């Protein structure tokens, strides 16, 4: 299930949350005001964490001893060497995912998701253009939260998922091919913002609806914002079908799933139900909403929902009958002012929400949540971290790292100390490091799993100001690599990486957990493989179907003749079986460029509407005779 480090240049990973739990157990004197829950059974917590670390094959060294100094780790990746990690960064309103290697921070690939992209022929062949059309025919999206699927709380290398905040969609990226293979337009959501997997086994992918709208948004309640609502959507990762949604009060923002398949957490703002910024921030508290997934599933099972736009929608608003009784579907936890990020600790014990407009984070005890009469009783810590706390990541050694947007810092703090220390204490703060500038998300290696690697952290900074050569009024952003593996020396800033607008979140996955294909498996797609002897042209009633292969340095036909007005479908296979030899088929003046990786088949359909000669050419430099790799499309005038 989890990897152990055996190479010399990687830190030895241990799970010392055990140790901090034990430390915290000895002689804690918590703020009485804050001591609302029974003291944690630290032996039990220790045993659980110990079990986890033995599962992980860890050595269980005591705190501090397991950290590794920067001199002893690989920070440079020499020419020809490979990185230790894949990082999947969202591309914000470019609508794409970028793949980096860590620790080099080299950009390895871009994966178009919500927007057409010519180098990959994405949105130019029939399959991908239909996928984009059917999900709403938008030409862009706003990708924020790339999350990689997990099995047993560890990355399984199957898929990444990412939200489209702009158009209320969720997409799936197939990590065998590093390409988008499904997009769902989430009904009843404008602005699908938070995205995350329900763990331990990715039963659902949750899309968190941010913008409150009339429900259904069909012209009713236009000027009655009090009646607007937002939903979370539970999406089946296999089918990408929206199984159910839950209606709530207030806007929602980010989300994260517990580690045990029961709870899903979403932050939110605008408990005021307002429409302007000043009204939305007028009260001192908003909510973290804790969704009790099995309780919701039972409600769906029992038919306790309204069907809205084809989706069963369960009423999880505060006044809902489903929230009365001892098994509410949604628990509303009061946290300070407009919380933004929420993330569950690797051991599954706490959900930590960042204050955004309040200098604290709120630590929610997940175990207590199930039993507490008042969900606010599950708040067990509120460390004072600094100005503008947005997102929190983990190293697996009991520390949390939170971005401070306004202070332009990352703060490292001790989770169990925060639970001991009580309200608004700065005691849990271990260290702050300056970042450049104004960080949004940060992500540590495998922070979203039960077993973070604890060596690298990326701070995704919104502004770069003076850090790079100027390139006009629009600046690059700055993704900074920080080493967090040495608890004695503290955090070290290792690298600045300029990035194009705009990474929000990322997932960092050990390289050996992803197994990309080198060539296509024709069985994975519907398009029919066209071998060398199978090239043929069929004509029927103004429809022309051209099947042909491509290889260095030719296409299956040197010329293809059609008649003006014909609807032409080209099915083209790259029959190379050597990796990295790509061809494409581009047709001038027809807006066509399909990418063909080895053994890949793509189809494109277009109308040959202007008589003339059009060179079909290959746009990937594939051999010394690449420029000569072309055929003619001859369009004869209609009678
Ligand atoms: Cu903080 Cu969309 Cu995750 Cu951006 S959200 S930063
Ligand atoms: Cu094939 Cu260039």
Automatic annotation (TrEMBL):
Gene3D superfamilies: Cupredoxins - blue copper proteins, YVTN repeat-like/Quinoprotein amine dehydrogenase. Pathway: Nitrogen metabolism; nitrate reduction (denitrification); dinitrogen from nitrate: step 4/4. Keywords: Calcium, Copper, Metal-binding, Oxidoreductase, Periplasm, Signal. It is found in: Periplasm. It comes from the Archaea. Residues 1-35 are annotated as: Disordered. Its cofactor is Cu cation; Ca(2+). GO terms for molecular function: calcium ion binding; copper ion binding; cytochrome-c oxidase activity; nitrous-oxide reductase activity. One of its GO terms (cellular component) is membrane. Pfam families: Cupredoxin_1, nos_propeller, nos_propeller_2. Nitrous-oxide reductase is part of a bacterial respiratory system which is activated under anaerobic conditions in the presence of nitrate or nitrous oxide. Homodimer. In the C-terminal section; belongs to the cytochrome c oxidase subunit 2 family. Belongs to the NosZ family. This is Nitrous-oxide reductase.
